[in-house]
Amino acid sequence: MESMAIADRLRAEFPDTILHTYTHQGQTAVVVRPGRIVDILRWLRETDGIRMNHLRSLCGVDNAGRQEQGLSRFEVVYNLYSVSLRHEIRVRAAVDDGEAGIDSVVELWSGADWLERETYDLLGIRFNNHPDLRRVLLPDDWVGYPLRKDYPLRGAEEWSGMTELLAKVKELDQYGFDPQGHAPGQAAPSREDSP
Amino acid sequence: MSRPLMQHLEVPVPDGEGERYSLRMGPQHPATHGVLRVDLELDGETILACMPQVGYLHRGIEKLAESRTYAQGLILTDRLDYIAAMANNVGYCVAVERLLSISVPLRAKYIRTMVAEMSRICSHLLWLATHALDIGAMTVFLYCFREREILLDLFEELCGARLTFSYPRIGGVRQDVTAGFISELQRFLDIFPSKMEEYETLIDTNRIWLKRTVGVGKVTGEEALALGLTGACLRGSGIDYDIRKHQPYDAYGLVDFEVPLGRDGDIYARYRCRMEELHQSARIIQQCIDQLPPGPIVGPDAPDLVMPAKASPRIAAGATTYGAGLIKLIRDRGPYLAGDIYVATEVPKGELGFYFISDGSSRPYRMHIRSPSFIHIGAMAAIAKGGLVADLIANIGSLDIVLGESDR
């Protein structure tokens, strides 16, 4: 089925939830409110003739630096594909508040587990009802969400566990290790860099 | 008449009950193929719970890409799957080309298909080598590295690098292939089937191999789809999904090849799928050599540094102008189309997808990498649960992961 036809059927099914649809470079995307995301994706996955059974990717986006009008602060983007029927669609859920977040889709695709953890880890978007929402790529005690646009690109700050680690090295050391040799704040002089 | 052998030793023998303990495997364990740590809850040798931990190799590639131009971002993709860097490069280029509507000449498409398939052979050979080594077949390891070396030498001849190539570029490829390269590649293709036979003779019907792989690590097609498995891991479960066929890119629509499918979804099925893929890759390369059309190797609108074919008078005039000329060569060809796109390619590990958002500037606003290894490691908990520790090793090998791509 044509992706636009799927988008139209989706709009008929969930009239209040769909904000708009568009096609870019031959790919159709649907921008939706986050409230009924599980229902929408379940419908796309289980309706005959659509059967989007493959969650190709799930990622978050921070819209803070985008010029377009009417964008929410965050977005969670689902790229879906039907392996049996060979058509695709993209669903963009507009999330205004990362803390309030969006419902998890792990019940539909168990593989979404780690993708949602990654999105939480790097962008700070919460996934409600997620079985195990922890950081996955960064250490558990990391402060901040690096893929947000306001995350500093340069600076001399160090990982909070570093002091503890250096003390441990000093304690076990036999060769005269000097923790002062590894002091923060000695990074190369920074130059202005736009994100 | 005889006492049990271990009766006089005060060694607790696991009886399947009350022998619970937790074990951290990795991140330095040789069978985890990189810096993967797996936290295990065990009962005797049975895995009750398995929690893979990744991130040791996280370099923030997605974030780095946001402050580089599209052409500069290419080198980051070398560092994803460093075993098959060429396939990653091609995936990135295909995605950016579609995002920015950049055309690619036919010759470049064929060359890229050729090198991507060479990359697939490299990756599958390394997979077979290490997978077999994990299970205990040392000879296969040595054989595979022998053939992989020929391909790495060919890559070196082509672009000067053996690991991080950055050879494909947005809008084409960096240099043309030489006649010497083609004839060497042809020599490789001529001997490759006999080498394949050597590997298959060694392990295809090897009793130990069969014991370790048949019926182990089973995943049904439904489960595999829900877990997000792609590549040979999905096809081993009988699901026909190969992006080279489903959404052909480069020259894949112009060459003839088959997509091998497994049935049982166990380690042996995945093994057979990859072995068949090796045959098919060789077939694709052969067709690329035979059909390679003449013509330019880079399109007119590539957003990249363009080395002049002949030294222009300005460059010949002196060092300072030469520098100025170079600076001019590295140019931003903005403004670009704004919008978003998801483009996936079939790399040796599975589906490598790039989700790009362009805001019209010369740098991507957001680049998300759908990394097959990351998703496969996420699925490992479900696959390994209830099995034995030894089978976890076989499963890790069979999922064919690479941590550079998983951690990004």
Give your account of this protein's structure.
The complex is a heterodimer of chains A (195) and B (408). Chain A is an alpha/beta fold and 195 residues long. In chain A, 23% of the residues lie in helices and 22% in strands. Chain A has two domains: 3-151, NADH:ubiquinone oxidoreductase Nqo5 subunit (Beta Polymerase, domain 2, 2-Layer Sandwich), CATH 3.30.460; 154-188, no CATH class. Chain A is built from four helices and seven strands. In chain A, strands 1-2-5-4-3 form a five-stranded mixed β-sheet, with helices on one face. Chain A has a two-stranded parallel sheet with strand order 6-7. Chain B has helices spanning 61-66, 70-78, 85-100, 106-135, 138-159, 179-203, 207-213, 221-227, 232-235, 243-246, 267-291, 313-317, 319-329, 372-384, 389-399, 403-407; strands spanning 20-25, 37-43, 46-53, 168-169, 172-173, 338-347, 350-359, 364-370. In chain B, the strands form three sheets. Chain B has a three-stranded antiparallel β-sheet with strand order 1-2-3. A three-stranded antiparallel β-sheet of chain B has the order 6-7-8. In chain B, strands 4-5 form a two-stranded antiparallel sheet. The N and C termini of chain B lie far apart (61 Å). The model of chain B is unreliable at 1-9 and 313-329 (pLDDT under 50). The interface between A and B is large, with 42 and 43 residues.
Indicate the proportion of strand residues of chain B.
5-15%
Task: Give the CATH topology of the largest domain in chain A.
Answer: Beta Polymerase, domain 2
What is the multimeric organization of the chains shown? heterodimer
What is the number of E strands of chain A? 7
- SSE ordering of chain B: EEEHHHHHEEHHHHHHHHEEEHHH
Q: How many beta-strand elements of chain B? A: 8
Give me the number of helical elements of chain B: 16
CATH architecture of the largest domain in chain B: Orthogonal Bundle
Work out the radius of gyration of chain A. Answer: 22 Å
SSE string of chain A, helices as H and strands as E: HEEHEEEEHEH
